[in-house]
Design brief:
Blueprint lengths: L1 E5 L7 H9 L6 E6 L6 E8 L3 H11 L3 E2 L2 E2 L1 E4 L32
Antiparallel strand pairs: 1-3, 1-6, 2-3, 4-5
Length: 108
Amino acid sequence: MIILVRNIDRSITEDEVLRLLKKHGKVRSFDLVRDKVADTSKGFGFADMPSLEQATQAIEALDGYQLGTRKLRVKKAASSSLLKESPKKKKGKSYGKNPFKERRERPD
């Protein structure tokens, strides 16, 4: 299960959050989202926990947990197209009109 960890103090490292999560079960990975330009934490991240039971336990234990100067907000991550395989494109007729297609007038 993918869980979302929000409201992470900007001074907290990825390893610190990972150690905290591992107290509640096996963690495949934890990714702290970082600003690409400033290379600083954006204050949230995603953890992948293989066990639904352990992920639920981590959510219950850590939601509201004081880490640094902030209380964590932890919940199940919403489904995302990035987490799933892309659906295969359907073959067949396209429905709807293309508003950008040039309209041609028929000669009389």
